[in-house]
Specification:
By secondary structure, this protein is mainly α. The protein contains 5 helices and no strands. The structure holds zinc ion.
């Protein structure tokens, strides 16, 4: 993991957009599930982690949706949490942000790996 530090952080348009989407999904999750108006500590931590992973994504602007990525750079517990968050927020994203959300929603058959 030490090589990550030396890489230039991603700052392309696509990565920026992905960051917005993941933050939006975490916000929806926290608001509806945890009934918070600002992110609770746990969701803030997950948000920071997700943003950081995106900054370091080795694919940069070439990346696909994280659910389809072969690397799975998330640590196990964060991975579980982001999956749960996305599963929960997915339908709301369809409602509020239909275009951006489509490729981020894991298909039902793919959740149980
Ligand atoms: Zn929360």
């Amino acid at each position: 993991m030490t090589t990550e530090v030396k890489r230039r952080l991603n700052d392309g348009l696509k990565i920026q957009k992905e960051k917005e989407i993941v933050s939006t999904m975490i916000r929806i999750y926290c608001k509806k599930k945890h009934r918070q108006n600002v992110l609770c500590a746990e969701c803030q931590d997950l948000n920071d982690y997700a943003i950081h992973r995106l900054s370091l994504c080795p694919f940069g602007e070439e990346k696909t949706a994280c659910a389809k990525c072969p690397i799975h750079c998330y640590k196990q517990d964060y991975r579980q949490r982001i999956k749960e968050t996305m599963r929960y927020s997915g339908p709301w994203m369809l409602l509020y942000h239909p275009i951006e959300s489509i490729r981020h929603i894991p298909l039902p058959g793919k959740l149980r790996k």
